[in-house]
Amino acid sequence: MTRKPASVRRQDLVEAGLRVIAREGMHGATVRAIVAEAGVPLATFHYVFASRDEMIGEAYAYLAEVPGTGAALPEDSTVEDVVRASFQRWFERFLEHPEYELAIMEIMAYCSRTPSLAHLPGKVQEHYLAAVSELLEHVRGQLGVTAPAMPTRDAASLVLHATDGLTYAWLRTRDSAAALRWIDGVVPMLAAAVGDER
User: What digits encode the pLDDT tens for the residues 148-172?
Assistant: First the structure.
């Protein structure tokens, strides 16, 4: 049997921890519950993590990864086309693992109340802003937007507020049809924030 490297074990445990947190909340995410979910001995956890809080911090960072794009856009794309397609792709990815959003909420609340982890929510938000800002700059460059409607960071913040709102609404209602209608409604606002092609 092939022995997994520590980096793979860490990721396995992080993913198992996220499943437990999403299902049972932070109170149920004991080290024993996490290793049971991962199907590994208790010793494995203590080999790769110094503590549960270290794993929680890594799980938060794992969830904070924002897929970017360096792909060229079709020549006839408009800002609104790109914003709509990007928002719909994000929503499709969200629907693949909506439980991760529940885990994010649990972890954020826990970190905010834990002195050693209290810095993480702000750090993760900065990471999101930087990633979305980079994506917006890419889109503006590809589409030739020379007079953006608002600074990139402000537009990125608006995008994050929109995705947060949709996330929370869907988790409360589980109404995907309503979410798609909401996307149709919000796209013109977000496209206006990105700016017009020149």
Answer: 888 999 999 999 999 999 999 999 9
Element (H, E) at 108: helix 98-113
Q: HEC states along the chain? A: CCCCCHHHHHHHHHHHHHHHHHHHCHHHCCHHHHHHHHCCCHHHHHHHCCCHHHHHHHHHHHHCCCCCCCCCCCCCCCHHHHHHHHHHHHHHHHHHCHHHHHHHHHHHHHHHHCHHHCCHHHHHHHHHHHHHHHHHHHHHHHHCCCCCCCCHHHHHHHHHHHHHHHHHHHHHHCCHHHHHHHHHHHHHHHHHHHCCCC
pLDDT tens sequence across 94-141: 998 888 888 888 899 999 999 989 998 998 899 889 988 988 898 888
Closest CA relative to residue 90, chosen from 115, 112, 106, 66: 66
Q: Do the beta carbons of residue 48 and residue 35 sit within 8 Å?
A: no
- Residue 132 near residue 156 (C-beta atoms within 8 A): yes
Q: What's at 111, amino acid-wise?
A: C
